Prior knowledge:
Elements: H1 2-11, H2 20-30, H3 33-51, H4 61-78, H5 87-107, H6 114-134, H7 140-147, H8 151-164, H9 194-203, H10 210-221, H11 226-233, H12 237-261
Helix pairs in contact: 1-3, 2-3, 3-4, 3-5, 4-5, 6-7, 6-8, 7-8, 9-10, 10-12, 11-12
Amino acid sequence: xxxxxxxxxxxxxxxxxxxxxxxxxxxxxxxxxxxxxxxxxxxxxxxxxxxxxxxxxxxxxxxxxxxxxxxxxxxxxxxxxxxxxxxxxxxxxxxxxxxxxxxxxxxxxxxxxxxxxxxxxxxxxxxxxxxxxxxxxxxxxxxxxxxxxxxxxxxxxxxxxxxxxxxxxxxxxxxxxxxxxxxxxxxxxxxxxxxxxxxxxxxxxxxxxxxxxxxxxxxxxxxxxxxxxxxxxxxxxxxxxxxxxxxxxxxxxxxxxxxxxxx
Length: 263
């Protein structure tokens, strides 16, 4: 009740410092809860607009606005008007950081290294803005130019974004028909030893380098997963994935070449 009365007093005719800058200065000095409540109300549109950047993500918009509002409160608590910086310039990165931490810590189904998570979020945001500017999906080169990073880093982030999204095998195969068979029924059974035999036969004539052969040996002979291989080699899981794709592409080309020669 007292808080409400104070808030009304701030809006009363003739009340001093009713502009945002004045309220920010008074709050920095007094830490008055009523001032804080009023400032949150005034800057809430900023938090909402930043939350809308992620409206296409897996989270509900209401949840994103709540996270952005928490970032706004943190910005108010940490803002120092005496440094001469505008509050919006200070608050926007704080709110966006809170949104990114929310996705990194609570939403992402597959955990990725923090640096890759941050880059993936930046690539998503840049891709969305470029799509709005161009009217079509931007290329990897355009995203890389906007973020001033390499095309390989953009591709890695896009692959990480795709890899992190898990899909329940219980969902219908046909999304438009809830009665259709679940996705799990489309998954074939594993054939023991198939991967090892295929890799062994194809590798004999494929132009693999030592590192590629070693990765395939760890994967198919020692049955290590990509994370374990990465630890063995001292590289990231994503780098192991790229090495395996490159090696398997060579194997496939070798097998297809043999087929073509046989007519």
